[in-house]
Structures are given as structure tokens and as C-alpha cells.
User: Which sequence fits this backbone?
């Protein structure tokens, strides 16, 4: 009997229609756990390094993690892996919701898609019955609309459906995979689904998941429940509201957006609008936000309220979460929450990543204003009208064009980095907020921050929001605040780390960019990243773990929880070794695809005050700490330590690891 | 018949507070698995969240009695403008629908309020609902003494309803011969 995991994957060849239920090697649980860990292993083993995102061989995996479908709080993520059309590296956007639990109750840990379907299809997984079904009638339908149509067609109200909208069908590089209130958004998974002519994956299961030691597992969860209740009743003081609680950012609950609207940049990550949140806005935006929210909702087995059912005026109902409520209004400089709710609905049905997409549209507006895009780019045709001149109309027009790859939309749909190079004529200068060809949060700050420098530069996730988390974003101004913060901080790997927070000053010698020092920064960033890697193998929501301050899950309770679920005999050291193995395999995979040190840098204008020498030192120190050479490639010794000699051999053959290189 | 005191156990459901997480389904199935907490399967849960997200419907319903035949007619409620599917509020394990049946055998499930020895303070679903959707209440009532069907009888009666007494008697005879 298998515990925690089901022990089976589904392998579906979309070209031939062959479907197989394949038992997995139980040893993989010991070496890579599950979720992202085992998915990375499958990509390394099976996908040749020269496979391009829209090649037949770009295998796509929808995976659950080892704690999904158990009583583990907030273990509800699904991780989707594929070579990204934006970055050309292995992407792993994750979605919450209920999909991964249903997959495991159906008896599978992963669904692995090979090749492309000759016609539009969707997949229906119901325990032992798995069907490839015609989806020609769903083409052109919205991502949310499709989910309901499939549920009705199957007469399965409890089926969970992950679907793409028109943006995915048209292979827009920022197309998301939508599922209820959740989405796997970043880096173009929707485009890869579209390329495979895979409109949706529906799943409903009624089988058991076994726990190795249920009593011990439930005791861990009881303790965690008490802590969740405590944290919900006791927000952390002296940090901004959004960081004070647990869960993904409670953007549907919180209505005071002074911080986001005045600190994040408007337009194409361009303008900071200090003083925006005035008295009028402070009355209007919270009111309109509340007007749109019908109910606060959560994902599978999570007590928080990160999502909401949106029922706003005559806009069709949809579900939302996180920062998407602001991104379209801010990117378009439209000072209206009314516009925000309405536009987000349209974008959600199109199936768009609400972080990257608004920046692409704002980038187009900047190019128009700079005269790089001209009237003919904004002209109408027999099938669509010319671009309106008002800000709202122009933004929606651009959204429509990109979603359907019409006119200039066909170029913009490739993301800011690639569109800038296709357009040329100076457009490259307007691509100032991407890392590894991927749009970042619209943030531009003052002084280079060593922790953020490393996180931006080096993580395979690429987007910062899912790298950071456990360490405070900035130093506390007073010693009293620092002492209060460290007093109750059992999540830290070691008590001695507290002194770093106590010493950390907002400015001066013990402030950024010099403190934390490169050595300390390396330890902190490695720790935060390691927590994300554990979450991603378990498919626990980072909002209850690696992405928030003082979270319910941490390095001290994780080994006990995973051991009770799976029967593995884990301690902190052995768990860390497993996720380090997966993390280094992921890095090696991206190195094999050409990623080098030269790619590891934040946008030039991310900080006003840069320190080139210090930054190089940071990166070098971090590479050494990780056991990577100075080109960011894991060393032979490091790979050997992690039982990855076969990876070292492969990299050596390709000349990526060179003789005598440390 | 003599009067006896009966403990009436109620779970008060404040459905408007439900965030739809289905934690109640998970822990119910865990509690009722053998050995306890060894297996998880919401389809075996004796509480089900009836969900229709875009209609703003998240309604926890507990498994009630098994019924061999469906009602002569059905009911359909519209409350606060929300139209619920037929029989949504009914707790019966009924031939008209799939819920509250063991997914493999089809045998009926019934909420037992997590009866345990020693008794639990409250049912698992209530303990695990951190949004106070489910609140447990107890009171005593005086009732006439009666006999309640045992679990085995409930299961057997439903099998008899499905296959007829003869087949079940034959099956039992065969099984007892095999030892």
C-alpha cells in the first residue's frame, strides 16, 4: 500500500489518444518526495534539452503533491510544469483550488501529457474511467464559462475543471490555466495547453487516500489548528497589513490599498503615485470593492479567505484573488475600482495572467505615446473597430487584440521582452521590468536590497512573489519592535539567527545594501527557498508556509507531518537533502537549456541606487554557498553529495561543467 | 412504554459563513475510517457541502436516514433569490441521488455525531470548522422508549430493498458455509 501518494500517474498521448495508468517507483518518494520534485525529475529524464515550448515533445505535467487530499491544512496546490514560451526554461506555476485533491481521490498523483491533439479536446478523469472528449463546441468560450459547461455536460457538479480561455487557445505567452477561484498563471501554461489543443482537464474522484500514521498526523494538525487560530486572532504588529496575517495576501478582505497604490508602479512599471490614496479614493475604492464581493471563499481544506465570488453590477459573476483586483486599473492609469472589477472579469474569462498581461498592454500604450507604434497599429479592420482614444477604451481594445492575436495583439501576445525585440525601433528600451524574459511585479525601489537581489536573480520561479516570505521585508526601526518580533519566532532554523534581525537597521552600516552581509544573505535566502521547495513538493499553499511571516508550516514540523503521512523516516536534515536534490536538478535542467550567470540579474532600474561590485560579490557568495560554480551551475561535488552523479555526467558531456571548475 | 431522557444533539449550520473549504468532509471521512484516521475520502463523508459557486451556494448538509423509495414529489427552494437544486435540503440517503452512499458498495451513510468512547466534546466536523459555520448544541428531551435499528440492520435492510430478501438470505448462507 502507498501512503500520502496514490502511486499511480496517468500518461496521456494526445496525438494517438493512448491513455495509460502507470504505477510509479516508490523509491522516487524517498529521493524526490512528490509534486514539483518528482515532476522536475520526469522532465529531466524525458525531455531533451533542445525541445522548444511549442514542440510536440514539450511534455506537460499537472501534478498534485504528497499532502494534497489529506487533512493537512491548505494542502491544495496543483503544480503545472512545462517549458515556458516566455523564458524557454522549465516553468512551474501553481494553482490552489480543489483540482489536485480530486485528482488524488481519482487515484492519480500526476497527469502527464505528451504530444499534441489533432483537434480540440478536453480530458475527463473519473476514477478508473479516463476519456479524451471532443471540445470543438468549447472553442472560443471563456475559461470560467468552460468549466461550468463541462460540469453540466458531464452532469458532474462536483467535477473540478482546469481550463483555458481564448488567450490560451491563441497561444498568448501570458495565458493562464484557470480553475474556479484559482489559476496557474505565470509563464504561459495556458499557451502550451492551447498548442496541444487541450481545452480543459476535468476530474472527480471517490477513492481513498491512505495515511501511514493517521493518529500522529491528526495530532500535528490539531497543534497547527491552534496556531492558525492564534495567528488569525493576533496579526503581527509593526508590519503592513498585508504582511500581518497568514494565508495568501488577503486582498479580498483588505480594502485599504494605500500601500499598494502608492508604492507599486502604475503603467508599465513606470510611475509611482504618492498621494494617490486621497480622501475621495479612500471612500470610493473600498466601497466599490465591497460592492463587488458576494462572498469570501477559500481553497480545499483551508480556513482562510483569500478568494472571493465577485458579483458586480451587470458583469457576469466570476471569482478573484490576490492582487489582480488592482493590476489592470493601475497599468492603465484608470482611477476606478469599477473599471478594475469589470476588466478583471473579461481578463479572467480570456484566461490571462493578471500580473504580466496588464504590463504588456501598458507597454503598448507607452510605445504608442513614444511614436514607436503608430496609427496603423491601432487601426480597425473588417472584424474589429479602431482603437478608441480614451484610456479605458484603449486598454480594453488592446486586451481584446492580444487575447485573439489580432493585429498588433499578435506581437504583444509574445510578452514584453519578445514583443520589444520584434517591434524594434527603440522598443527594447521600454522592456525594463523583465527578468529572464518574464514580467516582474511593477516595483521600482531606492536602495539595492541584498536579500531581494539574490531572490530576483537566482530562483527558478523567476517571479519574486513566490520566492520571498519568512524573513521580514525590511528592518524594524526600533530595538523594541525587533525584540518583540524575535521573542516568539520558533520557525527560524536556528535561534542564533535572531541576532541578525536585532542588528538590522533601516539605514547606515547595518542597513541595506551592506547588511545583511553577503554571507548572511546567502543563508537567509537559501532557507526561504528551501521552504518553498518543501511546499512545492507537498503542494501546500505558500500562503500558510513559505510566503508569510511566522507561518503554520516550518522546517521543524514539516518532517513530522510528512513522515506521518507517508511513512518516510524524515528529520530536518534528510528532508532538506531531498528538496535540495530537486532544487539542484531543476537548476541543472535550466543550465542544460542555456541559463547562465548572465541571465541572473534584476532589471537595471529596479533600484535607483545600485552597487555593481557588491552585487557581483553577493551572487558569487550565494553561488558558493549553494555549491554552484561561478557560472551558476551545480558543481560535480555538490551533485555527487545529492546523489546526482548522472546529472554531473550529462552536464560534463555537454561542456556545461568543465574540468577542474569549482 | 416508559418515558426516558434522550439527549438531542444538534449541529447549527450558519451557511452564510461557509468559505467552501470542505474541511468538514475530510475529517468526517478520516474519523470514520478503520483504523481511525487511516484513510481520507470525502465521498464517504456524512457531511457534504452542496456547492454551486457562481450561484453563491455553499450548503453543508448532514446524512440522515436511509430511505428505500424516493418521495412522491420533489421540492425545489428559492431563498434570497438563489435557486437550489431539487431536494438540496433533504438529508436522506435516497435512490433519487448519489450522495450519502459508500462509493464502492452503495451502502447508506448516516451521521452519528461522531459517537465515541469516551464521548467527544463535539463532532469532528464542528471541531475542524474554523469559521464557525457549524456549531454544536446538546439538550435533553423526554421521549417514549423505542428501539433503534442497529447499523448492521440499516445496511442489511437497504441491501434487502435493493436485491430482495431471498438473494440476501442465499448470500448469507453461502458466506457462512465458507466460514
Assistant:
Amino acid at each position: 500500500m502507498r501512503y500520502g501518494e496514490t502511486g499511480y500517474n496517468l500518461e496521456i498521448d494526445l496525438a494517438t489518444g493512448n491513455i495509460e495508468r502507470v504505477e510509479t517507483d516508490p523509491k522516487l518518494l524517498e529521493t524526490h518526495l512528490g509534486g514539483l520534485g518528482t515532476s522536475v525529475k520526469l522532465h529531466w529524464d524525458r525531455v531533451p534539452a533542445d525541445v522548444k515550448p511549442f514542440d510536440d515533445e514539450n511534455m506537460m505535467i499537472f501534478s498534485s503533491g504528497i499532502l494534497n487530499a489529506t487533512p493537512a491544512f491548505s494542502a491544495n496546490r496543483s503544480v503545472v510544469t512545462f517549458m515556458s514560451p516566455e523564458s524557454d526554461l522549465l516553468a512551474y506555476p501553481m494553482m490552489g483550488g480543489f483540482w489536485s485533491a480530486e485528482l488524488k481521490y481519482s487515484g492519480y498523483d500526476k497527469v502527464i501529457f505528451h504530444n499534441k491533439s489533432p483537434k480540440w479536446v478536453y480530458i475527463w478523469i473519473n476514477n478508473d474511467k479516463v476519456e479524451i472528449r471532443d471540445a470543438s463546441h468549447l472553442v472560443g468560450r471563456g475559461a470560467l464559462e468552460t468549466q461550468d459547461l463541462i460540469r453540466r455536460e458531464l452532469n458532474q457538479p462536483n467535477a473540478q475543471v482546469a481550463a483555458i480561455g481564448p488567450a490560451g487557445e491563441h497561444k498568448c505567452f501570458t495565458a493562464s490555466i484557470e480553475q474556479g477561484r484559482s489559476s496557474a498563471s505565470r509563464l504561459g501554461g495556458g499557451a502550451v495547453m492551447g498548442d496541444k489543443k487541450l481545452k480543459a482537464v476535468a476530474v472527480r474522484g471517490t477513492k481513498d487516500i491512505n495515511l501511514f500514521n493517521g493518529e500522529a498526523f491528526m495530532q500535528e494538525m490539531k497543534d497547527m489548528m491552534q496556531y492558525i487560530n492564534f495567528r488569525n486572532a493576533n496579526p503581527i504588529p509593526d508590519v503592513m497589513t498585508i504582511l500581518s496575517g497568514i494565508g495568501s495576501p488577503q486582498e479580498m478582505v483588505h480594502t485599504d490599498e494605500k500601500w499598494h497604490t502608492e508604492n507599486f508602479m502604475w503603467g508599465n512599471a513606470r510611475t509611482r503615485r504618492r498621494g494617490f490614496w486621497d480622501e475621495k479614493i479612500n471612500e470610493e475604492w473600498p466601497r466599490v470593492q465591497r460592492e463587488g464581493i458576494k462572498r469570501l471563499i477559500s481553497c480545499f481544506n483551508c480556513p482562510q479567505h483569500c478568494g472571493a465570488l465577485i458579483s458586480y453590477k451587470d458583469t457576469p459573476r466570476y471569482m478573484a484573488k490576490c492582487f489582480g483586483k488592482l493590476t489592470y486599473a493601475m497599468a492603465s492609469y484608470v482611477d476606478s475600482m469599477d473599471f478594475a472589477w469589470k476588466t478583471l472579469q473579461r481578463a479572467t474569462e480570456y484566461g490571462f495572467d493578471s500580473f504580466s498581461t496588464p504590463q504588456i498592454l501598458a507597454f503598448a500604450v507607452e510605445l504608442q505615446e513614444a511614436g514607436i507604434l503608430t496609427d496603423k497599429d491601432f487601426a480597425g479592420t473588417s472584424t474589429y473597430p479602431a482603437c478608441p482614444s480614451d484610456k479605458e477604451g484603449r486598454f480594453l481594445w488592446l486586451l481584446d487584440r492580444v487575447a485573439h492575436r489580432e493585429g498588433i495583439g499578435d506581437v504583444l501576445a509574445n510578452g514584453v521582452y519578445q514583443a520589444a525585440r520584434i517591434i524594434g525601433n527603440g522598443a527594447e528600451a521600454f522592456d525594463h521590468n523583465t527578468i529572464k524574459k518574464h514580467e516582474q511585479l511593477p516595483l521600482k525601489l531606492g536602495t539595492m536590497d541584498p536579500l531581494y537581489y539574490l531572490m530576483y536573480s537566482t530562483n527558478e520561479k523567476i517571479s519574486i512573489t513566490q520566492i520571498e516570505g519568512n524573513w521580514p521585508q525590511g528592518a524594524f526601526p526600533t530595538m523594541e519592535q525587533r525584540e518583540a518580533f524575535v521573542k516568539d519566532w520558533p520557525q527560524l532554523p536556528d535561534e542564533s539567527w535572531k541576532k541578525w534581525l536585532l542588528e538590522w537597521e533601516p539605514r547606515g552600516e547595518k542597513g541595506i545594501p551592506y547588511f545583511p552581509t553577503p554571507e548572511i544573505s546567502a543563508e537567509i535566502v537559501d532557507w526561504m527557498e528551501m521552504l518553498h521547495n518543501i511546499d512545492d513538493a507537498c503542494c501546500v499553499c505558500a500562503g500558510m508556509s513559505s510566503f508569510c511571516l511566522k507561518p503554520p508550516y516550518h522546517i521543524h514540523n514539516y518532517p513530522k507531518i510528512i513522515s506521518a503521512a507517508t511513512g518516510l523516516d524524515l528529520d530536518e536534515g534528510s528532508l532538506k537533502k531531498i528538496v535540495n536534490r530537486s532544487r539542484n536538478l531543476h537548476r541543472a535542467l535550466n543550465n542544460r537549456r542555456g541559463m547562465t550567470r548572465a541571465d541572473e540579474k534584476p532589471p537595471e532600474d529596479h533600484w535607483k541606487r545600485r552597487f555593481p561590485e557588491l552585487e557581483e560579490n553577493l551572487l558569487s557568495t550565494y553561488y558558493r554557498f549553494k555549491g554552484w560554480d561561478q557560472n551558476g551551475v551545480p558543481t560535480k561535488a555538490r551533485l555527487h553529495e545529492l546523489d546526482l552523479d548522472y546529472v554531473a555526467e550529462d552536464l560534463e558531456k555537454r561542456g556545461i561543467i568543465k574540468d577542474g571548475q569549482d | 412504554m416508559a418515558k426516558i431522557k434522550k439527549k438531542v444533539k444538534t449541529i447549527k449550520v450558519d451557511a452564510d459563513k461557509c468559505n467552501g473549504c470542505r474541511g468538514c468532509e475530510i475529517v468526517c471521512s478520516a474519523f470514520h475510517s478503520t483504523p481511525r484516521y487511516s484513510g481520507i475520502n470525502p465521498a464517504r463523508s456524512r457531511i457534504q457541502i452542496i456547492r454551486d459557486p457562481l450561484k453563491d451556494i455553499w450548503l453543508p448538509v448532514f446524512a440522515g436516514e436511509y430511505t428505500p423509495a424516493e418521495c412522491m414529489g420533489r421540492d425545489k427552494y428559492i431563498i434570497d433569490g438563489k435557486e437550489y437544486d431539487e431536494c438540496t435540503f433533504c438529508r436522506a440517503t435516497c435512490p433519487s441521488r448519489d450522495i450519502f452512499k459508500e462509493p464502492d458498495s452503495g451502502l447508506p451513510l448516516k451521521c452519528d455525531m461522531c459517537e465515541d468512547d469516551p464521548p467527544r466534546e463535539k463532532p469532528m466536523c464542528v471541531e475542524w470548522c474554523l469559521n464557525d459555520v457549524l456549531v454544536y448544541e446538546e439538550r435533553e428531551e423526554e421521549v417514549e422508549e423505542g428501539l433503534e435499528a442497529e447499523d448492521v440492520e440499516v445496511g442489511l435492510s437497504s441491501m434487502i430493498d435493493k436485491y430482495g430478501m431471498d438473494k440476501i438470505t442465499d448470500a448469507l448462507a453461502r458466506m457462512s458455509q465458507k466460514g
